Amino acid sequence: DVKVTQSSRYLVKRTGEKVFLECVQDMDHENMFWYRQDPGLGLRLIYFSYDVKMKEKGDIPEGYSVSREKKERFSLILESASTNQTSMYLCASRWGQGPYEQYFGPGTRLTVT
Amino acid sequence: QKEVEQDPGPLSVPEGAIVSLNCTYSNSAFQYFMWYRQYSRKGPELLMYTYSSGNKEDGRFTAQVDKSSKYISLFIRDSQPSDSATYLCAMSETAGNKLTFGGGTRVLVKP
Question: Cα separation of B63 and B56, whole Å?
């Protein structure tokens, strides 16, 4: 079974803090994704990576950066957290470039106060 | 206007009923259509995947795509309480392209 794990289920941070969200997948997938999920808005893509050290902006990259130093690990960084970044953050991975399934982690609920 | 529209629900049905879910979209370039199911406090998981127009059936689930109307549907027959979840539609232009998600419909199947 593919497993995508995220470092925290719940996180509370203060405005202005630097926040790291970690994601690890165990199936040697090339592609990894970070989404945020907000009520009524569905999942919105923040960043994705199709290879180690490669990254592409998604639909809402502002205020975020990412790092992928190893194939299995994809990190999302909030350089200076703001209250409008309070959300559920979901990581996903996918094998190859075809119409293949994205496998999601359980999510991290981040609250910025 | 959002690129993919989906009624947020909740949609409440008695056990055994047919659940009917749908999404409309505006981008005529979408060719790949998916339905994901998300249980509370879990990540989404793929339920159904279809390419272009037509129907696809998998057990109690049927996915339909009508590209001329820019409308996709998911039907769940003989619904069970375990089907209670949020259902998200997702679509993409090309096979390896990013997915665009609908907002999700929350479904409650009452015993």
Answer: 5
